[in-house]
Design goal:
Organism: Dactylosporangium matsuzakiense
GO biological process, one term: NAD+ biosynthetic process
Shape: globular
Radius of gyration: 22 Å
GO molecular function, one term: L-aspartate oxidase activity
Structural class: alpha+beta
Distance between the termini: 47 Å
Protein name: FAD-dependent oxidoreductase
Largest sheet: 7 strands, mixed
Number of strands: 21
InterPro entries: FAD/NAD-bd_sf (IPR036188), NadB (IPR005288)
């Protein structure tokens, strides 16, 4: 195949990149190794982590269209109560982690509908389930990528003027010889206050395999996992107790905190206030990432709420899964950990009535679309990251450093984002890093490798550090980065230019940024304070 823009990876960054390039009139081949497009929002089953102003500003117009589309889908197809249907900022799950908690399959339907006109028109071809297997280069250019079918092993070779790496782990970077980093950079390299003295490339954030459950009559206990005994007794040295427990450190204070777990609590879903400024929302594990609140729907539509399990006890930080000899073995171990968490919940978890175990918890693989009942894909928090023209560092955006000055402004801003610098425990034995952050910009230079001419980063592989990735890895920022990368590829083709030239030529940069403005990409924040 040959196309203008090849986008490898169909997560949020990949879909946004495809839409941007297609809007600009370019042909696109988009690939994805899992059954659903959407990455962390769908196949990884993670409700959107978003900032507190998301309903007013701070996201791109196309990301807002995705969010609006999800709400409209519920209003068109689901038996909402009258009050829920009238709720302008409908939160179908009434979860506390986000103002829009929803079932993954709804997001799949909306993403597919956004892409459908371009598929029908023949300018978009989606290769699924295909992942990258090899790449061809000529000097500083990628000349082709070989993609392999997940099940059959069939290969397809694609050539393109521009290649975007939107994979979850930066898979194209080693295949193309693009310079990249992994893990923790040293303080000497970045000057970051929270960085170690020596670089730790194998020290990466935990991955998690999420799953969905409801709670109904009967005994739905799964078979005891083979390594359940290991995970039940597992006590990380920095944790202060067993990992499988409702008592866990608070990410922000590191002090032990007792969580509540009570299925179907009968709370008022219309009263949920999902605002991370005021409350992280994780004290009640059932409502924290709830994706269906049954009381928002007609009586009998749902036998139970549906709860998305993505909790501290699910974090697999035993071993990295990037640049290791057998990553599949470690991802399998993470899935075994997830099954062990579920089995513990069903059999040994303490109940409010003094008993143990919740056998009524039922695994909802139909909600996550997988054969084994868990999420199709692991939730990857940290990717390989390009050595970029511009690397975002902690002192650019940390609230403790910047204070009321706000984040460092970038002359080449191509978007905005906001989230606390939120790092989960890591494979090097580090605890949470969860500190305040200023609303920040996305520099164009973070999408451009220092050397390669026609490869762009379009996801969590942009030029951040181990630390700043904790703020840039969330749903709307990944979407914005991908959208900017897709728009840049199309712009360079239209102007017979290169990404580096666009960034470093004031007239071209201004023209490109103006085109982003027209497409509804916000590049600056109003006067708001971080948290």
């Amino acid at each position: 195949m040959n196309t203008d823009v090849l986008i490898v990876g169909g997560g949020l960054g990949g879909v946004a990149a495809a839409l941007a390039a297609l809007r600009a009139g370019r042909s696109v081949v988009l690939t994805e190794e899992y059954d659903w497009l959407g990455g962390q929002l769908t196949s990884q089953a993670v409700p959107p982590d978003e900032h507190s102003w998301v309903e007013q500003f701070g996201i791109t117009a196309s990301y807002r269209a995705l969010r609006t589309g999800i709400r409209d889908y519920y209003r068109r197809h689901y038996p909402l109560t009258t009050a829920a249907r009238a709720w302008r900022d409908l939160n179908p799950g009434a979860g506390h982690v986000s103002r829009l908690c929803h079932e993954p399959r709804v997001a799949v339907a909306v993403l597919e509908s956004m892409l459908m006109p371009y598929r029908s028109g023949g300018r978009l071809r989606v290769l699924q389930p295909y992942g990258p297997a090899a790449a061809d280069t000529d000097g500083d250019r990628v000349t082709g990528v070989t993609l392999r079918h997940r099940e059959t092993g069939e290969t397809v070779h694609v050539t393109a003027a521009y290649v975007l790496d939107a994979t979850e782990t930066g898979e194209l970077l080693p295949l193309t010889g693009t310079e990249y980093v992994t893990g923790f950079e040293s303080q000497a390299d970045t000057g970051e206050p929270s960085a170690p003295a020596t670089a730790q490339p194998a020290n990466m954030q935990a991955v998690s395999v999420c799953f969905a459950v409801d709670h109904v009559d009967g005994d739905h206990t799964i078979d005891r996992p083979a390594r359940y005994g290991f995970w039940r007794d597992y006590t990380p040295p920095f944790w202060g107790g067993p990992l499988l427990s409702f008592r866990a450190p608070s990410p922000r204070t590191l002090e032990p905190a007792e969580r509540v777990f009570a299925p179907n609590p009968g709370d008022d879903p219309l009263a949920v206030d999902a605002d991370q400024r005021r409350n992280p929302g994780d004290s009640n594990l059932w409502t924290f990432r709830r994706i269906a609140a049954r009381d928002l729907f007609a009586p009998g539509a749902y036998a139970s709420d549906i709860c998305l399990v993505n909790w501290p006890m699910l974090d697999y930080f035993e071993h990295p899964v990037i640049d290791v000899p057998d990553p599949a073995a470690h991802l399998a171990a993470a899935r075994e950990q997830a099954r062990s968490v579920l089995y513990w919940l069903q059999t040994e978890a303490p109940r409010p009535d003094g008993g143990t175990g919740f056998p009524g918890l039922r695994l909802r693989g139909d909600v996550t679309g997988s054969a084994d009942g868990l999420a199709q894909a692991p939730y990857i928090r940290e990717s390989r990251r390009i050595r970029a023209e511009c690397t975002v560092v902690e002192q650019d955006l940390a609230l403790a450093v910047r204070g009321d000055k706000g984040a460092v402004p970038y002359h080449d801003s191509v978007g905005v984002g906001m989230y606390r610098i939120d790092l989960h425990p890591s494979t090097g034995g580090d605890h949470y890093i969860d500190v305040g952050c200023c609303p920040f910009q996305i520099p164009l230079g973070a999408l451009i490798p220092r050397r390669m001419d026609n490869l762009l980063a379009a996801g969590k592989n942009i030029g951040t550090t181990h630390i700043t990735n904790g703020a840039y890895r969330l749903h709307p920022v990944e979407w914005n980065a991908g959208e900017a990368a897709g728009a840049l590829a199309a712009f360079c083709l239209d102007r017979a230019s290169t990404p580096r030239a666009v960034r470093n030529t004031p007239a071209l940069l201004e023209e490109f940024q103006t085109s982003l403005d027209r497409d509804g990409v916000e590049r600056h924040w109003p006067d708001v304070a971080g948290y």
